[in-house]
Design goal:
The complex is a heterodimer of chains A (156) and B (772). Chain A has 156 residues and is α+β, with helices and mostly antiparallel strands. Chain A has helices spanning 22-30, 85-92, 102-115, 121-127, 139-155, and strands at 2-7, 10-15, 48-51, 54-57, 70-72. In chain A, 35% of the residues lie in helices and 15% in strands. Chain A has a 5-stranded mixed sheet with strand order 2-1-5-3-4, with helices on both faces. In chain A, helix 2 crosses helix 5 (139-155). Chain A is globular. Chain B is α+β, with helices and mostly antiparallel strands and 772 residues long. Chain B is 28% helix and 23% strand. Chain B has a 7-stranded mixed sheet. Chain B has a 5-stranded mixed sheet with strand order 7-15-14-13-8. A 4-stranded mixed sheet of chain B has the order 18-26-27-28, sandwiched between helices. The chains are: A alpha+beta (156), B alpha+beta (772). At the A-B interface, helix 2, helix 3, helix 4 and helix 5 of A face helix 1 and helix 18 of B.
Chain lengths: 156, 772
């Protein structure tokens, strides 16, 4: 079936099988491989993207369901060569090690900050519970979220 | 060796991170080659069965399918999955890359379907009909060792793969002289490593050149090249293994699996790129598990707390086949049974048995967490028996700093240590006396507060070659390019540890250059000289040591040329902040200028070898022995059995720290995994050998809100085993945190007269204990 959608501001038309997962469309058809796959059961969150401004796990969305949607992936976060404040914060606070969960985690954090620009430690930990990280023990991710909250609030 | 400290010892942000936070790094599945074919592997649904027949006709005619292979196709053409561990009398079963008439665990590969896309390959795999004849199953390790158990590998007539004894000293005399003998049965549950990136292989064979490139998510590119070349009957130098970004390993990628050789072989057959990416379900079924020991530990002790002896009779659950290091893991446990204590007599009697499950092998810590958990759990049991404070019992038996190198009854020499220093620091951070008073008060109010301590020592920087099956050295090349930029080729293969940064820091300081002028290349066997890889907390302590030695050679060669250029003698020159100084008239020359002169050798000494590059293969003279103290304070909910971690304190000593930011991150992640073992995680098979924890929905990898904040500090006791004085820190957190957490929760249950509970300490288990 034919679908049209926008990814990181670029329009794409694709002819897809109805069963094609959105994450496979993004990775294999469009070729944006920053969105990772860690489980295909919606648990790990490595495939988290923004669909129409809300976070979603793209391994559990059909490409067909995204017809007409505006999607943002990790590749759409940095602007004009400048890291997004959340990306900057993960770097600054050593919020990543192997980097595999990182794109999904950053997208989830962006979603969290939209809803709650000044989250507490506890709110951060619950806010990212849909994203697994096996390397960091989450502590520096929490630090990165707090740091990015400062940065984002300072921009306002 | 002296170092500038512009970079070394500083919290330098990682150079790896910009590409990773942008999502533009390349993991195996991110590498897209034109015309790539995709493989889906059909795996056994039975834990133990004969394969009567396999019908692939429908699969072969399914749309998009290019080929379907079974065990009959690869028999005699692809070698068996290798086991590198050498134990005397070891029974090594033949482990074909596709099952040959029999399967012995759920998830064992049976057939490979190759198609033009992965959806079509999956469709076709579902069309394969396998006629199984189920056999009796054994999943319990202790039952497997019994004579009435079903035998998994008939050729051996037994499920016992090996027996292994370790330790020295007169254990019988120690137990005869004891005032008390404290005995406990402990189960060290089976765990799944769960790197967030599952495994994956991409192979591309060029028939004209007779060369193959194999991209693999692995920790050991060179060892994999050697093993896969052997399995394929290929010349090693015609196989190039590349490890692109690797999304975590934790030991599970310190292996050679069926799939690397299988995908390589298929690529040779079909002449096109062939890719296989492991699903999470496959990752649970067919990527190695860790731990899985069950045994009885006895400790002989005097009434004053002096430890006399320790005996551990243990059964190690190996799974159905032997992977690369499967039998070696319990032997590491045997080495570390002295913990950080003076125990004059130690004996381990280990039986390694086959079960109808996935193989166990190295998972973060690999045999040492088992030892530390055992020793530290027993220390609490002994303290309870003697009515001593568990801290004082530990302190009483620790060797003093002056006693190092400290010989253990397990045959090791601990390089250096100051165990009481870290202990005292952690106790001060926790305000231990006040904590105990608060605990007593809380108990009066019916609150179940527990305080758990673990003082650990681990064996790292693997290691001297004599102790490792494939050698334990590491290699580095330092190449100063004509323009003064420096390329480092390292034999280690980092997968999240940050050695690109740490190694650039070292070269930045040693050569007195901007660390951003350093490029660290790893994980490509056609570019990098042979190396051993990243595991056993060896990347910095062995790989970094090789780097230092190579850089020293470069500086020495540059000095010869600098003396020539400055028309002075070498002895008068010193190398300071990137310049050779000390020549007459204050003349000096930079390392970059020397490099250019070395590549354009118009003005060089007689017999000068052009270029400015050096390689060093570093052989460590010993392991290193990092140590530390962890303290966990927890509360058990009387109504629900839920555990809340109130405080977690860790004081670790990994020797000199090159990058404290990275050290901190390693400790955080390690504690999280060890705590997860204590509280949440367990691989569960049912009595039929079906894997019940086969997805992340069923296997409890902790989420952010399930873990506490960790308070860290450190002490620094350098090692003389390597020129960096660094001991390694990759596994410390995992090793220290499981017993600290377990001891804390079990201490909380003291009012219920509980002396031991097997892990994981899940709410329902604790609730049942409290409600008997």
């Amino acid at each position: 079936m034919k679908i049209s959608l926008s990814i990181n501001g670029t329009s794409y038309d694709a002819d897809v099988e109805p069963r094609l997962l959105l994450v496979h469309l993004i990775r294999d058809v469009i070729g944006l491989t920053g969105t990772h796959i860690g489980c295909e059961t919606s648990i790990c969150g490595a495939c988290t993207v923004m669909i129409n401004g809300k976070t979603a796990k793209s391994c559990c969305v059909l490409a067909a369901q995204a017809d007409g949607a505006e999607i943002t992936t990790i590749e759409g976060m940095a602007q004009d060569g400048q890291l997004h404040p959340v990306q900057e914060a993960f770097w600054e606070k050593h919020g990543l090690q192997c980097g595999y969960c990182t794109p999904g985690m950053i997208m989830a954090v962006c979603g969290l900050m939209k809803d709650n620009p000044n989250p507490t430690d506890d709110q951060i930990r619950h806010g990212i519970e849909g994203n697994l990280c096996r390397c960091t023990g989450y502590q520096n991710i929490v630090e990165a979220v707090k740091y990015s909250a400062e940065k984002l609030n300072a921009q306002k | 060796m002296s170092f500038l400290a512009k970079y070394i010892g500083q919290k330098v942000k990682r150079t790896e991170d910009p590409r990773l936070v942008k999502g533009i790094g390349h993991y195996v599945d991110d590498i897209k080659l034109a015309d790539t074919l995709h493989v889906v592997i059909l795996r056994s649904q039975y834990a133990h069965a004969k394969i009567v027949s396999i019908n692939t006709d429908a699969a072969k005619s399914s749309p998009g399918v290019v080929a379907v292979y079974t065990g009959a196709d690869v028999a005699g053409k692809v070698g068996f999955v290798p086991c590198a561990a050498a134990l005397s009398g070891l029974n090594v079963p033949k482990y074909p890359v596709l099952a040959d008439g029999k399967v012995a665990f759920v998830g064992q590969p049976i057939a490979a379907v190759v198609a033009t896309d992965k959806y079509k390959a999956r469709d076709a795999a579902d069309l394969i009909e396998v006629d199984y004849d189920p056999l009796d199953v054994v999943t319990d390790a202790e039952a497997s060792a019994q004579s009435d158990s079903p035998v998994i590998h008939e050729e051996f007539g037994t499920n016992v793969a090996f027996t292994h004894q370790a330790g020295t000293g007169d254990v019988d005399a120690a137990f005869a002289a004891a005032d008390k003998i404290v005995k406990e049965k402990l189960n060290h549950q089976r765990l799944a490593p769960i790197s967030m990136e599952p495994r994956g292989v991409l192979a591309h064979y060029l028939p004209g050149e007779e060369q193959m490139t194999l991209w693999s998510s692995t920790q050991i590119p060179h060892l994999m090249r050697t093993q896969v070349a052997i399995m394929l009957g290929m010349a090693e130098n015609r196989l190039r293994v590349i490890t692109p970004e690797v999304g975590g390993g934790f030991g599970c990628k310190l292996n050679v699996y069926s799939e690397e050789a299988l995908i390589g072989w298929i690529a040779i057959q079909l002449g096109k790129p062939v890719k296989w990416i492991e699903s999470r379900r496959e990752n649970f079924q067919a990527t190695i598990h860790g731990r899985a020991q069950v045994g009885v530990c006895e400790v002989a002790v005097k009434n004053d707390g002096t430890l006399l002896g320790l005996r551990y009779n243990v059964t190690a659950d190996l799974g159905a086949y032997l992977q690369l290091l499967t039998p070696a893991i319990p032997t590491l446990t045997g080495l570390m049974l002295s913990g950080c204590y003076k125990i004059p007599a130690i004996q381990m009697n280990c039986v390694g048995v086959f079960t109808n499950k996935m193989s166990t092998d190295a998972y973060r810590g690999a045999g040492r967490p088992e030892a530390t958990y055992l020793v530290e759990r027993m220390m609490d049991c002994v303290a309870r028996e003697l009515k001593m404070d568990p801290v004082e019992l530990r302190r009483k038996n620790m060797p003093k700093p002056s006693e190092f190198p400290f010989p253990t009854a397990t045959g090791l020499f601990y390089d250096s240590g100051d165990y009481e220093k870290a202990l005292d620091k952690a106790l001060a951070m926790a305000d231990y006396k006040k904590l105990r008073a608060e605990q007593a008060e809380a108990r009066k109010q019916g609150r179940l507060i527990g305080i758990g301590v673990s003082t650990y020592v681990e064996i790292c920087a693997m290691g001297p070659s004599i102790a490792l099956p494939a050698g334990g050295w590491e290699s580095a090349t330092v190449r100063v390019e004509p323009t003064g930029k420096v390329t480092v080729l390292t034999g280690v293969s980092p997968h999240g540890q940050g050695e690109e940064t740490a190694f650039a820091q070292i070269i930045g300081d040693m050569l007195g250059i901007d660390m951003n002028d350093v490029l660290v290349i790893h994980g490509d066997t056609s570019i990098v000289q042979y190396g051993i890889g990243t595991f056993g907390s060896r990347g910095l302590a062995v790989g970094g040591a090789a780097l230092v030695k190579a850089a020293e050679k470069v500086v020495a060669k540059a000095k010869t040329l600098a003396a020539h250029l400055l028309q002075t003698d070498e002895a008068s020159l010193s190398f300071e902040e990137g310049r050779f100084v000390g020549a007459p008239n204050d003349k000096s020359v930079s390392i970059q200028e020397v490099a250019l002169a070395a590549y354009i050798p118009h003005n060089v000494p007689e017999d000068f070898e052009p270029g400015l590059t050096a390689t060093h293969f570093f052989e460590p003279k010993n392991f290193t022995f990092p140590s530390g103290t962890h303290i966990c304070v927890s509360e058990v909910d009387r109504e629900t059995g839920d555990v809340k971690i109130l405080r977690y304190i860790a004081v670790d000593d990994c020797g000199n720290q090159i990058n404290p930011l990275i050290v901190q991150g390693q400790v955080h992640g390690g504690i999280a995994q060890g705590m997860a073992q204590a509280l949440f995680e367990e691989v569960v098979y049912d009595e039929n050998g079906q894997l019940l924890t086969g997805e992340l929905m069923d296997y409890a990898v902790p989420k952010a809100h399930q873990l506490p904040h960790f308070d860290l500090d450190h002490t620094v006791t350098p090692t003389d085993v390597n020129p960096l004085g660094a001991k390694g820190v990759g596994e410390a957190g995992t090793i220290g945190s499981t017993p600290a957490t377990a001891n804390s929760v079990i201490d909380a249950l003291a009012p219920f007269n509980v002396s031991h509970v097997d892990l994981p300490l899940r709410p329902e288990k604790l609730w049942k204990l409290m409600n008997n």
